[in-house]
């Protein structure tokens, strides 16, 4: 095994659409490789998958997760709702966020859209070598 092996991870950009307000996450990578291994510090010579396997280097799964688990008290939700209502906004829409130039959130159900047969995987269930 070589003495030094370097891991390079492709940068991620967040592009906000002014029209819709949605945010697109984009990996700046060549094709589907979001990372690569190299024996040189500059990363100018990536190792092939075959060489990585021979050297026993781990394979990683890459993903971008915006995991924030905020729990607010009921009075905080009520205050937010009241603030939007007195300013003429319907709190059940994204009109307030759109008017303020805030990013828009799309609420999706992981049970319907991502997991087959309605099964749910935990955040840490993606694989032991997950990035």
Please provide a written account of the structure.
With 131 residues, the protein is an alpha+beta fold. Helices cover 22% and strands 14% of the residues. It has 4 helices and 4 strands, in the order ββββαααα. The protein has helices at 49-55, 74-86, 95-99, 110-113, and strands spanning 6-9, 12-16, 23-27, 35-38. The strands form 2 sheets. It has a two-stranded antiparallel ribbon. Residues 117-131 have low confidence and may be disordered.
Assembly state of the chains shown: single chain
Radius of gyration: 21 Å
By DSSP, the count of extended strands is: 4
Number of domains: 2
What tags apply to this protein structure?
single chain, 131 residues, alpha+beta, two-stranded antiparallel sheet, 4 helices, 4 strands, disordered C terminus
Structural topology:
Layout (H helix, E strand, L loop, with lengths): L5 E4 L2 E5 L6 E5 L7 E4 L10 H7 L18 H13 L8 H5 L10 H4 L18
Antiparallel strand pairs: 1-4, 2-3
Short description:
Helices cover 22% and strands 14% of the residues.
């Amino acid at each position: 095994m070589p003495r030094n092996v370097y891991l390079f991870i492709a940068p991620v950009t967040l592009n906000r659409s002014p029209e819709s307000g949605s945010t697109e996450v984009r990996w700046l990578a060549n094709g589907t490789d979001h990372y690569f291994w190299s024996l040189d510090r500059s990363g100018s010579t990536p190792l092939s998958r075959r060489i990585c396997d021979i050297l026993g280097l781990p394979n990683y799964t890459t993903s971008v997760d915006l995991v924030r688990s905020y729990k607010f008290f009921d009075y905080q939700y009520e205050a937010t709702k009241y603030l939007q209502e007195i300013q003429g906004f319907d709190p059940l829409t994204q009109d307030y966020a759109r008017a303020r130039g805030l990013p828009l959130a799309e609420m999706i159900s992981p049970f319907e859209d991502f997991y087959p047969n309605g099964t749910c995987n935990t955040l840490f269930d993606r694989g032991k070598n997950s990035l």
